[in-house]
């Protein structure tokens, strides 16, 4: 355990629903060092419903979130965050285990991976918008590209189908941009070019990256590398008109 003499330690138990319809009881222990919140708390996570690896995943994700809050007090926010995101964290660590088992049977591991291609009309507050998209992709564990080529803005995402759906809801309901007068506004000019199951010939993106392309050829290469040439020729040229 942590040395009790320094800072304060408190335990909290939260029950999280929605996970395979069972309640997960998370036992969280936060140890706040003397110079908290300018340093991160120590966190330990236990739960009878989760494996050790899943508890470690939860802890890692909480620490990742905690870094974003420095140097503000963060424990309350972390507790709210894990209540909302536990299912994604667990789903991810569950898929990792399953992939190994299905591979050995020679079965397809792509049963739940979907792909989404979005076209945005413009980004006025580009830096903030890009940050938001990156954060959503990371929170929902989606990989892919945010692509800029001239006036064209495309978002290509791959991930769990329910997370892709969740992303679309965020994209349509959050105030991600500003209007011409600088007021925050929701995204109205977005079109879903395609939403489909990832096929075996499609390459999986390992990360989510923001990229700028100076030519259409460069953009096309990005699609080709991912085994998505057909998608490029079907959806991108019409945008140039």
Automatic annotation (TrEMBL):
Q: What keywords is this UniProt entry annotated with?
A: Cytoplasm, Nucleus
Reply yes or no: does the keyword Nucleus apply: yes
**Where would you find this protein in the cell?**
Cytoplasm; Nucleus
Q: Mention any one GO cellular component term assigned to this protein in its UniProt record.
A: nucleus
Q: Where is the RWD domain?
A: 1-89
| The UniProt record lists the keyword Ribonucleoprotein | no
Q: Please give the superkingdom of this protein's source.
A: Eukaryota
What Gene3D superfamilies does the entry give?
Ubiquitin Conjugating Enzyme
From the UniProt record, give one GO term of the biological process aspect: positive regulation of protein sumoylation
Pfam families, per database record: RWD (PF05773)
**Official protein name in the record:** RWD domain-containing protein 3
